[in-house]
């Protein structure tokens, strides 16, 4: 390993205590998406303490700092800011009920730790390109009510942090992104390089309007919105045989408002639904069938219906292309057990990293260091080195290797990457949902 590479790993080891304290502070103070005000402030302070000029409040709470002035090939070291609504977790923030049970605080440690190493002047000088340390808001798609309110107020247009940042041009100066996550599959390995393909999704909010009447004396005078929703969900279930196994379609719904009093015919019912699939075409096909089903319920009962579709996330594609530079990542991992993800495995959950993957190469890796399940009360960090320190080393060494030697490896990654959408096409897709005629 060359001297500067050793210096990168050494710097992170020397500052490990500081990095762990930062991560643990974030861990105990999780905040909802687009409301990560305190988290963003802490990230900003850390980046400023490294001598970086920081831009704040990007897409409400995002924080971005460039290593150098000027351009050149730029790699973004990304950390997500938001927590998960899981109030029963032992480290849930009492103020918000949110917890970091998706491990996004580990990503922030990776990003800050890589900034600690890459801001060492000799290291920065040896890179022929730029690095953006980028804390991004709202990866989880929860708190829909608040998001809808923000959309109505024009504070955001799309539902996720990365989508908003793409829209606002904050990824225009980024050529490659690098992301970390805790393991999303059971594995014997400490580090998995790359990322599995994931489903994309469309978020749906369906409002049924009926007519209230006494449930016993005059139900014939009412229009039962709950019956309309119930029929629609049955119709939706009948669509399932038309979904191909290979498309991993998932359609799941809840009735978030189902009536107010049992002796009143429900006149307002709200169904929330997510339509997920492995490809955009399968997603759009399943969404069309879902809309038909929801309309059928309204038609049969004579209820009014309004369907609001919101663009969720795009699928992660090219799982095999998302592996960081193997040699650098393995060198950073030292004696830890490292493997590549099995690109044949598909993850039916969704992430807005999928949106980025359509526009630019994304280098991804996952680490262990926790027990229990993501998004669950039993989630707990068990190995601070694996969860907080090692991800920083892998991120820093990979970025350094991509940008040294006239950014040879970064150029290779960019040449090899098949761009799926231009930014213009991406925005047209997203706006297609927003501009559609509301029924
Ligand atoms: Zn999550
Ligand atoms: Zn996550």
From TrEMBL:
GO CC terms: cytoplasm
One example of a Gene Ontology biological process annotation: folic acid catabolic process
Domain Peptidase M20 dimerisation, first and last residues per copy: 205-283
Keywords, ordered alphabetically: Hydrolase
Keyword flag Hydrolase: yes
Molecular function GO labels: dipeptidase activity; para-aminobenzoyl-glutamate hydrolase activity
Alphabetical list of InterPro entries matching this protein: Amidohydrolase, Bact_exopeptidase_dim_dom, Peptidase_M20/M20A_hydrolases, Peptidase_M20_dimer
Pfam family name, one: M20_dimer
Name of the protein described by the UniProt record: Amidohydrolase
């Amino acid at each position: 390993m060359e001297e500067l590479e050793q210096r990168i790993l050494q710097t992170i080891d020397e500052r490990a205590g500081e990095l762990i304290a930062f991560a643990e502070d974030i861990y105990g103070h999780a905040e909802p998406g687009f409301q990560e005000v305190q988290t963003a402030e802490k990230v900003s302070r850390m980046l400023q303490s490294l001598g970086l000029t920081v831009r704040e409040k990007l897409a409400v709470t995002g924080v971005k700092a460039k290593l150098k002035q000027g351009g050149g090939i730029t790699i973004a070291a990304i950390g997500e800011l938001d927590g998960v609504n899981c109030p029963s977790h032992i480290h849930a923030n009492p103020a918000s009920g949110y917890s970091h049970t998706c491990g996004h605080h580990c990503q922030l440690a990776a990003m800050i730790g890589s900034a600690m190493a890459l801001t060492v002047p000799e290291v920065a000088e040896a890179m022929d390109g730029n690095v953006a340390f980028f804390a991004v808001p709202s990866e989880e798609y929860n708190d829909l009510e608040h998001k809808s309110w923000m959309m109505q107020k024009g504070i955001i247009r799309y539902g996720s942090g990365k989508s908003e940042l793409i829209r606002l041009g904050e990824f225009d100066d980024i050529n490659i992104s690098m992301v970390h996550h805790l393991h999303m599959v059971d594995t014997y390995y400490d580090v998995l390089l790359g990322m599995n393909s994931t489903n994309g999704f469309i978020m749906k909010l369906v409002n049924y309007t009926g007519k209230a009447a006494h449930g016993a004396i005059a139900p014939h005078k009412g229009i039962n919105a709950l019956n309309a929703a119930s029929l629609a969900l049955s119709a939706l279930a009948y669509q399932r045989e038309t979904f191909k196994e290979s498309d991993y379609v998932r359609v799941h719904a809840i009735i978030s408002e189902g009536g107010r009093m049992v002796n009143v015919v429900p006149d307002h019912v709200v169904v929330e639904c997510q339509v997920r699939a492995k490809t955009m075409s399968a997603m759009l096909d399943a969404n069309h069938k879902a809309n038909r089903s929801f309309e059928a319920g309204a038609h049969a009962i004579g209820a009014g219906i309004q369907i609001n579709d919101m663009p969720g996330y795009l699928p992660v594609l090219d799982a095999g292309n998302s592996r960081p530079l193997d040699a650098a990542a393995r060198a950073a991992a030292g004696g830890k057990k490292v493997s590549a993800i099995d690109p044949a495995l598909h993850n039916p959950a969704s992430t807005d990293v999928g949106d980025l993957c359509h526009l630019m190469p994304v280098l991804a890796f996952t680490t262990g260091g926790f027990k229990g399940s993501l998004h669950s009360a039993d989630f707990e960090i068990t190995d601070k080195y694996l969860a907080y320190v090692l991800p920083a080393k892998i991120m820093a060494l990979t970025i350094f290797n991509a940008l040294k030697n006239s950014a040879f490896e970064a150029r290779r990654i960019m040449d090899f990457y098949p761009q799926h959408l231009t930014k213009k096409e991406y925005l047209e897709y997203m706006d297609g949902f927003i501009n559609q005629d509301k029924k």
